[in-house]
Description:
Elements: H1 3-16, H2 21-34, E1 42-43, E2 53-54, H3 78-85, H4 91-109, E3 113-114, E4 122-125, E5 130-133, H5 135-152, E6 158-162, H6 166-178, E7 181-186, E8 193-196, H7 199-205, E9 213-216, H8 218-225, H9 233-236, E10 247-251, E11 263-266, E12 272-275, H10 278-282
Parallel strand pairs: 3-6, 6-7, 7-8, 8-10, 9-10
Antiparallel strand pairs: 1-2, 4-5, 11-12
Helix pairs in contact: 1-2, 1-4, 2-4, 4-5, 5-6
Amino acid sequence: xSELEALFELMSxxxxxxxxxxxxxxxxxxxxxxxxxxxxxxxxxxxxxxxPSVYRPVGTTCPETCGYLDEYCYAQQGNVLIHQGRATxxxxxxxxxxxxxxxVGHMWFDAPCxxxxxxxxxxxxxxSGHQVVDWDLIEEMTCVGRELQGxxxxxxxxxxxxxxxxEDWQELFPVLRDAGISVVLSxxxxxxxxxxxxxxxxxxxxxxxxxxxxxxxxAQIAKQTEAGKFKSCAECQWCAHPMDKNFCVVFEPHGxxxxxxxxxxxxxxxxxxxxxxxxxxxxxxxxxxxxRK
Length: 293
Ligand code: SF4
């Protein structure tokens, strides 16, 4: 029996005892700990996502070109900072956490899990001296993703976001999608991408392309209007099927410091679109960005 099959059996047994998903994750953590194996931080109580969510360390797994790094990155502030600070970046640990998240996501929520709440899919390349896409990690994710698709009899087992360049995303997206893992390209106004923009200005400021439908994240809408039933990622799952309906999800800036964040996105043909921060629009003085690691 493979490690994954053993985990699946354990989780099936735990599911029958009708415990909370958080308890199931604790049991999975114990299972790996007893075998001397580490996992990355994994949570399940986030009100927006509700599903299991896996963290990687910020910086060492991120592209150095990410405009938020050490500036407005939400994962370097608040609670996410605490969780990502416990992550190691170890590939095996991340893959085990992905397996736990996918199994618990499927059994408890009938939904895929969220990967890289913090961090990305990059690694430092000594020969070039730069951060590059971690293809060894992607190969591992692909192998385990396929195995999970079979075990769970499920097409989509996880999704993530990346700040990769468009050309890198074009390579990694189909490979991971075939293994049940969707990767949305951050800050690209295109199908399969997502952008962060103030909704009241998005119609005027985002590029107009009849092939792209901009859709506001339903979890953020629900949070702002407090109308009706709260919608979470577990119910929505748009980001887990980013190419299905020609959409590009639009998030409003959120988290500490988001009022001061200047807006920017690109299109695959290299055009750059920018927008003012909320503070600049209303003439609010901007403090120096917090730099925490
Ligand atoms: S669009 Fe849907 S799946 Fe994506 S972040 Fe918002 S609620 Fe979650």
